[in-house]
Predict the structure.
Amino acid sequence: MLKRQSKTKIFFLSLIPFLMLLSGCEFKDIDKDVFVSMIAIDKSSDNDKPYKITLKFYQPTSSYKEAPEPQFSYLTQNGESLSEAIRLMESYIDKEIEFGHSKLIVIGEDLIKAKKSKEILDFLLRRPDIQMISWITVGRPTAEEIVHLVPEGENAAYPAIFNYFDENGTESQYIVTSYLFDFRRRLKEEGIDTVLPIIVIDEEKKHFKVNRALILRNNKEPHELSTLDTGIYNMLTSRAKVADLIIKEEGDYFIARIDSIDSKFKVNVSDTKKITIELEVSLVGYISESKETLQNKDLPYLNKLLEKDANMKFTAFMEEMIKNGYDPLGFRMNYKSHTLHNHRISTEEWNEAYKDAEIHITVKPGLKSTGTIQ
Amino acid sequence: MIANIIASVPAILFHFHKEGSVSAIILAIIVGTILITMYTRFFNSFPGMTLPELLKNTTSKWFYKSFVFFLAIVWFVAGLITLVTFTFLLIRFLTPEMPIIQICLTIMIPALFGSLMKTERILYTLEILILIGFPIIVFVFYKAYSSDKLEWAFVKDAALYFNQLPNLHAFSACFYLFLGVANLFIFNRFFTEKQNFNWKNVLFIGLLSTLALFTTYFIPIGFNGLDHIEELVYPWISTSDSLRMDFFLIERVLFVFLILYVGIAFLSIMIHWHVSLEFFNSIFNLEKVKFKGIAIGKLIVILLYVGVSLFFVRKLNEYQLFLFTSLFYDMLIIFFPSMLLLFFFIKRGMKNVKKAK
């Protein structure tokens, strides 16, 4: 009888030949994959094949020194459905197309206007490998052009356009960020409208401009927000971390830099089906530019000016939204969140009542300083 | 308890999200905590005795054999459901190119080896895996709760559906989470001394299960909205994919979550099949079945397990799995509370046995 220790030794020795059988994993090798960095979906001119997909692929390189400039390759294909286009594309490239690392989805403006968001959403969600945290945007004039542009100053490895949305690079008040899961929940939910950023390329074709947004609502034309309105929308949803407000009142002209924004609202529906919205915004910050010399002791007065001006701007924005029947902030959702489901008014009643909803905006100004000079 | 967060339980709950899921959750927490208390109390009064042993002492042979056989099948099915669910999950999200049989085997083989271990060692494995997994679960939950993309308006909206009659299927799905206590049928062997079990423990269990069920149900709603949430086949997968780690090696929380849950699924299958094997062992005396001097009793059962599992993994589709799971849960809500009656008989019987001694 062998000793216990030598038994163990024999066991391990006989195990080693079996390890040879593990020739590799069932995964595809990494050099047989090609990684998609962005997906662009457009409307094609071909009626039978309405979708046009453009994919942007990362070009693999062995080191940074070899390719200090960003390198990409592109594929474009029309298709009757999105999957058909991708299936055809697979035959144009020698590698397996891998969607797991794609972080940006650009949808052409024409396609959004043709109300195809539901079909696109279905495709994007049904594929398990597309990230739910990829950003979804609208490309103007076409998504293909956006995807093709490599702007000046772009690093290899990380496309510049991602920095606009990842809340890590630029913190502009005009950029709306919409993740795929957010896009889905807003499209499916009745109480809140979808807001997507619009990407435009500047005239010299060197940079992107992301300072507008598009509101989508079921059974309605998409509504475009101007740059100013986009900023206000971002402030009202507390998405913007910092914001500038230009205040022009009775000869005073100064710019308030708001570094802490907090907004909350409450929606009430009376028994007579009258909607009242209480919106409260607090703006805390300092003055970053002024045409006149300012006095520290005048801060209460400046605060009054800020309050008046901000109130006017917010009211104008909200009234436009209400008049046109858009609900980007989710007023109906707020109403639903504090009313029992069997006591709620129906969708038709809400839509009717929303047109003459009353809105009360309270601005709490908090200018703390005139900056480094008086 | 935790293993089911990921797949079938939330899917069933969301199916009835406007037809009484919330009230079912509340009811299940109350009933479930009571059930746990009663089961624990019962087994605490017989330290070190497993259910088959107790039954052997108190009931007639035909009842004992057929009943334990039935229990063994129930536990096998519980493990099978977890196995099939996770196989489907892995093929969908992690390794779409791998053949389904191979995925199934990679989970099954370690789990089977595990279930052959001694009861005591299984508890140690459990301890280690919980120690590794728990911080990650807490981290994912923390990420979810602290995310500014979590819309509380959706959560509140969903919670306001509480004033409906509890839905039976939703109730049974929630109730299933509390049935982990039934593993004491075998694991009581390990607790040879009387355990201290008082109202504090009951309160703790109640609070923990409330937190678990609240998270299971409301966090996916906060991320995915209430309307049409039943469309999501794997609500928690979509939810964990909605989380983003800005400054980590991996950006998608999904993969951390998936790997972690493979571990938990492995545990769950291992425990269920261990209990099932022990039940078979106690009726068929598997250790005595020998072929040329080698004990093959357990091997036969295990081969049966492998065969049945592979058959179901290949045959079922997602809808059938959902239906089958839902049916299984429904059956259990009648079965486990009625076990309490049996406990009552056993208690009386055991008194007589003691007297006889």
Remarks:
- The first helix of chain A runs from residue 4 to 19.
